[in-house]
Amino acid sequence: MSEVTREATSDAPSGDAPTSQWRRFLTSRLRALLLIGVAVWVLVFLLGGDNWLLILNVTMIAAIATLSLNVLSGYTGLISLGITFFMGIGAYTAAWLGGPPPTFPGDPMGHSLSIFIWLPAAGIVAALVGALVGPTALRLKGFYLAIVTLALVFIGLYLFKNARTITGGPQGRIFPGPSFGDFSFASPTPVFGVLLTTNQWYFVFLTPLLALVALFVYNVMRSRAGRAFQAVRDNETGAAIIGVNLFQAKMGAFILSSFLAGIAGALWAAYPGGYAEPNTWDLILAIQFVAALLVGGVASVWGSILGAAFVFGLPLALDTFSIIPQNTSATAFTSGDLSAILYGGLIILFMLFEPAGIIGFIRRFQVWARRFENPTDGRGKGGEVVAASEQSEFES
Amino acid sequence: MNDQAVSPQLSVSGVTVRFAGVTALDDVSFAVQRGELFAIIGPNGAGKTSLLNVLSRVYQPAAGGVTFAGRDLLKLRTHQVASAGIARTFQNQGQFPLTTVLDYLLLGRHTHMRSGVVLGGLYLGPTRAEERANRAYCQRLLDLMGLARVRDTPLGSLPFGLQKRADLARALAMQPRLLLLDEPVAGMGLEESRDMAAILLDIKEQLGITQILIEHDMAMVMGIADRILVLDFGRVIAQGLPSEIQANPAVITAYLGQEPQPAPNPSGATTS
Amino acid sequence: MAIRPRLRTSIGVLSCLAILGVILAGCGVNNGGGSLKNDFGVNTSAKTISLGILTPLSGPVAAPIGIPITKGIETYFDAVNASGGIDGYKVKLVEKDTQYNPQLEVSAYQQIKNQVAMFAESLGTPTTQAIVPLTNNDHVLVNAATLDSYLAREPYMVLIGTPYRLQVENAFDYVVKKLGVQHPKTGIIYQDDGYGQDGLTGYKEAVSYYGLDNVGEATYEATDTTFTAQAAQLKASGAQYVFLTAIPTAAAGIIGTAHAIGYDPHWLLQSPAYANGLLQVKGLNQLLEAEAWVMGQGATWGDTSVPGMAEMLNNIQKYAPSQQPDGYFEFGYTEAKVTYAILKKAFDNGDVTRAGLLKAFNSLQNVDVGGLYPTLHYGTAPNQRVPSRDSTVYAIDPTVPGNLKSLSGDFTGGAAAASQF
Amino acid sequence: MAYFIQLAFAGLAQGCIYALVALGFTIIFKASGVINFAQGEFLLGGAFVASVAAFEWRLNFFLAALIALAVTILVGVAFERFALRRMIGRPVFSIIMITIGLDILIRTGIVMTGLSNERPPAAPYGIAAGINYGGVHYGENELWTIAVTLIVCVALYVFFRYTRYGLAMRATAIDQEAALAMGINIRVVYMLAWGIAGAVATIAGIFLAIQVTTFDSTLGSIALFAFPAIILGGLDSIPGAVVGGIIIGVVQLLTTGYESHIVQFVGTGFDTITPYLLMIIILLVRPYGLFGTRKVERV
Predict the structure, then answer these.
(1) Whole-angstrom Cα distance, residue C76 to residue A285?
(2) Over the range D195-226, which residues count as b (16 or more CB within 10 Å of their CB) and which as e?
(3) Cβ contact C221–D271 (<8 Å)
(4) Residues of chain C with C-beta less than 8 angstroms from the C-beta of A324
């Protein structure tokens, strides 16, 4: 188990002698995926209740968005407060393609196409917008970039509010849920005699999707492009001297991040309500994703997922299973206030005492645990490697 | 073939660099032959690192020209210098504290690899093969440099000497034709610097890579350099074989820190 | 290499679990499900029926609106239960805090939708709109504590009172027909969101119906902290009657700033634009008393000549003795009466499934709420589902309980009567 | 014409409030390289405490204002002392986030008092007070806002120019190591910066509250328009903050005032983005703002 999580969480490529590397990587990944996939099903079975599924589904969508932010800010070091702008772009693309056609005059447009069209389209359009905005934004650094991306959020709100035929204007609009042919998540029909609820269908759909996104990001970061991103984050001039094209690398990260944000946005609008007004894509939401990224731990795939669970899942759980009665007689302190206070307070505590985030904590625990089970670990690998190769191509 | 032997691989002519009035480099000219180990020395603030920054296109010279293997280096952008065949080590480390040694070398392979974001994300056949091939390449380099043990250690948590060595390994991983070494033994113990010197000679003899070496450690330089250029206050005060440099009065005064008198350019010492 | 055996075993064990998971997941669902056949929220053994309440109990909207409305509902059903419930069924309220946040509203809805027969309250326009698609899927009635006219289109939305849109039209009916001002110069300042849009729609209808001389339309953003621009614009336009589709702080800002730059038209306030808190501000209170009219509805607080009001005050003494005079409480209390009417009819038909409740609601026709509000009308077409089209114009008067004194009594203007949904 | 002047005057006053908020940002940034996202809630807190003191505790305006000042200064200094001091040298993102955490705590706390709806502002004069001249009303509150902002600027100038600690703060802003070497007590510098930031925020809050007639827990969102102000002027430039703030204020008021003429082209709410558009344009021309200083990259 610790083996798996180590493999899966290490953002550095699992460094092994080339011969055994492929096999090791395959087996460990296979196990990681299996464990995740199975854990998923066990969860469905153990806590299949709609309440839990709702929490998990929201968390998974949020995790995709957090991963998108992680690509840009965590791995490439480009601070962004503007993720909701790209989420909005994706959401409205999806709505325009997949949404219902207008019933009353003045209703926003929709072509009720299948998810196989609107979900990818959401990502692609967001990515295109990213490619458009990127060159301007990426001339800036640090706080300047942060404030300019913050500006993006407000420009987005303004555009969304005024582009009525697509966004429905201030009134908001209905967003499409996943549907294949005549089957739709919104009103599911029995499949193989088993009737799953809407939440369960989303769960079945979101789990592999999140797994794919996470795997993709993980792969990018352990291959050439990702190494370039991280080099740019650590030292731009140094990276350039080593041969990294700064503009290319930054744009790559920006576009990939926008793509993922677009997909996340489309799902965020579709689930669980299927309705959103322009104000959905505001700064508060953007900041929640930043919180998720930092609390979970930057530059780590698992960190983003855990962070999303912490920032988006936990408050829902608190609210769902709150011991504090929710009624008018519960005076000053309701679970709403509680989670707001927790949110603010825990952010401060994390930034102060666990800057590496949840994942940093877990990693330290793993190191400790590994030492505990076999003290020679880590050195053993080095040793076997020294033996591994004899002659080098330099001699010839 | 033999006209290459005559025409230098790198030639710097009249390079001048100024920051807000301060002249860091003043009309610096020299030429380096293919396969040569060329040392640049001089007291602190003599402009040694500024010179390297010109060669790796970090600083834009106010005047002068640089040609490398026949092409005008000043036409390139910073990141293109690497693909042109010039690698550089850093004087002070700590730029990439989180990167493991192996990753650092793989980063050095950047210009020799192709896969981009999409291919990398899919991590299918070609990308995987590329990664494996380059991993193997770096692995051998690590073994050669005796870094295999620390392969998975983040640079930040390595002792300074090993960081320098890893940095050199990274530069070699770039398979350069010209290697710029920014004080490779600075802050090293006697033992370590001796090892480093040996490695530099190996690079020269076994790989035949041209090297430009910036160093304080006179003894080391004198021991390994083919030719030496001495900078003081941004100006070239001497240039020639180690023996000539040791004998040069201007150099001695410069190092004894007296008023540098305008030293006659030792034309006898300059090649070509 | 030591991995492989461990790998194989783990695959084995886990895939078994997986299969088990699939099967049980299947079963787990069938009895949980969202099907129409089941009754929701009715416990025949304990003889209780549960109703959902989605309202802000925390956050800025809770204290002024969320809590009084909900208190009104609680008070009414306390009384109903004390008098033996509905056909012997006691009403249980399942309350959830939405913080006036659409996302939380939706999750709260999802959490309790299967525990309740219908929703006795969903407060807020953006919040309620967020659950509309879901209610259409779950076929569950929602008593919406909002006056957004757009919801009249939705078959499962039960509205109380006159929509914002018609409030505006009645306001100008009062000006033109009751006060007899012909072709007055008029303007509107509206919040740049869904609420403001509804007001604007009504204003445009009023302009064409009453031949108003529309000289100025201005918007403000929820984030605005200065209203000089809006005030100056309306001042320049010379409007004599300015309608405000705003929230109380903005309304105060606009009226105060306008007065400061020497502009004092008649202000017509959308019902949510007024709050008693505004009277605390030095100078503003005189302005409001002198120049502002508030659109609204319902019996004046404490007017015991109205049977419904007498009953309500009596129940307040019994179940909510600390309650201050509050229009939102009255609204909630009335809302509860309508919910009761739907339930009563469903019980009489012997069918309290969600389908049955919808049938009961569609066949309600008229609901008499004892004069708290004028008789409310319900039906199947959007136009019939607008419960009432009448309004009262109030002056602000600290001497009367609730600080609102009726100027016009209840009336329905021509535009409001004619307007289509 | 009167219309234009009225707008420009109001814009100037609004700009002064932006300037005061921006000053807080800049002073903290210069001293400790931190952007304090809680600045807006300092403003809200100041206005709120003053209002509570004046209406719940029935104190007179000036006493209420003093209490408000004391509270925000205390909160600022305490936060610096117990939280931010540990964050020096941390990534920009973490620093932004921790101040956002404070922002959330302050706002939630204020909402939870249950007194935050339709707060009447603590005010020494009535809402209509002021001078009328040439068809333009020069409101007393606006005039005082402008005057006090001016006084604050002069005071800060004198402080930074002539007082011991002012010079210490400037030295720290230029080079922290050197300042340390010169025996400057960096801790005092940080505390001063946060204290001053809290104070100017409170001043801005009190005037803003009077200007909006009644306020609620969203008052702090005004800080979002101070961001473009500081970027416009250059993050590390105090005059830049003031100039930037005033430009933003005037531009914003004029856009709102003339929006109805261009509404068919730009739609509604254009005034909420003009500050940002202006900022972006400036950044394209001058990546470090109007008065900002460019840092030199080193290898």
Answers:
(1) 38
(2) bbbbbbbbbbbbbbbbbbbbbbbbbbbbbbbb
(3) yes
(4) none
pLDDT of D73: 96
D280 touching A, CB under 8 A? yes
- The arithmetic mean of pLDDT across residues B114-129, rounded, is 89
How do strand C185-191 and strand C241-245 relate by DSSP bridges?
Answer: parallel
Q: Tell me how close the Cα of B269 comes to any Cα of chain A, in angstroms.
A: 32
Kindly list the residues from chain B whose CB atom is less than 8 angstroms away from the CB atom of residue D299.
49, 53, 58, 90
Count of C–D CB contacts within 8 Å?
132
- Whole-number pLDDT of residue A48: 65
Instruction: Please check whether residue C230 touches D, CB under 8 A.
Output: yes
Write down the pLDDT at residue A25. 56
Could you tell me which of A281, A255, A279, A258 has the C-alpha nearest to residue A268?
A: A281
Which value does ipTM take for this structure? 0.89
Contact A344 D269 (CB under 8 A): no
Coil, strand or helix at C100: coil
The answer to whether B229 and B236 are in contact (CB under 8 A) is: yes
Please tell me whether the peptide bond between D228 and the residue prior to it is cis, using omega within 30 degrees of 0: no
Report the C-alpha gap between D278 and A34 in whole angstroms.
52
**Residue A348 or residue A325, greater confidence:** A348
From A330, which residue of chain C is nearest by alpha-carbon distance? C57
**Taking CA atoms, what residue in D is nearest to B56?**
D299
Chains in contact with chain D (at least 3 beta-carbon pairs closer than 8 A): A, B, C
Q: What is the pLDDT of residues A62-73, one digit of tens each?
A: 999 999 999 999
Q: Taking CB atoms and an 8 Å limit, are A50 and C114 in contact across chains?
A: yes
Q: Is A48 on the interface with C (CB under 8 A)?
A: yes
Q: Provide, rounded to the nearest whole percent, the portion of chain D with pLDDT above 90.
A: 58
What residue of B is the nearest CA neighbor of A220? Answer: B121
pLDDT value, residue A44: 66
pLDDT in tens, A100-111: 898 887 789 999
Torsion of CA D52, D55, D57, D58, to 10 degrees: 150
Q: C45 falls in which pLDDT band (50, 70, 90)?
A: confident
SS3 helix, strand, coil % of chain D, rounded to 5? Answer: 75, 5, 25
* Buried-exposed string B178-216: b where 16+ CB fall within 10 A, e elsewhere: bbbbbbbbeebeeebbebbbebbeebbeebebbbbbbbe
Give the pLDDT confidence of C48-98 residue by residue, as tens digits. Answer: 999 999 999 888 888 888 999 999 999 999 999 999 999 889 999 999 988
Classify strands B86-88 and B235-240 as parallel, antiparallel or unpaired: unpaired
User: What is the chain B residue with the closest CA to A386?
Assistant: B148
The whole-model pTM stands at: 0.89
Angle at C370 between CA C366 and CA C375, to 5 degrees: 30
Which of the pair, B271 or B53, is modelled with greater confidence?
Answer: B53
- Smallest CA–CA distance, residue B53 to chain D, in Å, is 8
Are C283 and D211 inside 8 Å of each other by CB?
Answer: no
Does D have 3 or more CB contacts under 8 Å with A?
yes
Q: Check: CB of residue C160 under 8 Å from CB of residue C334.
A: yes
Interface list for D 220-239 with C (CB within 8 A): 221-222, 224
CB B177 within 8 A of CB B69: yes
pLDDT digits (tens, 9 = 90+) for A111-161: 989 999 999 999 999 999 999 999 988 888 888 888 899 999 999 999 999
Q: Which of residues 130-159 of D touch A (CB under 8 A)?
A: none
pLDDT at A326: 73
Q: Do C58 and A334 touch (CB under 8 A)?
A: yes
Contact A104 C93 (CB under 8 A): no
Q: Does residue A251 surpass a pLDDT of 50?
A: yes
Mean pLDDT across chain D: 90
Per-residue tokens: B209 = 């890579």
Q: What gap in Å lies between CA B177 and CA B85, rounded to an integer?
A: 5
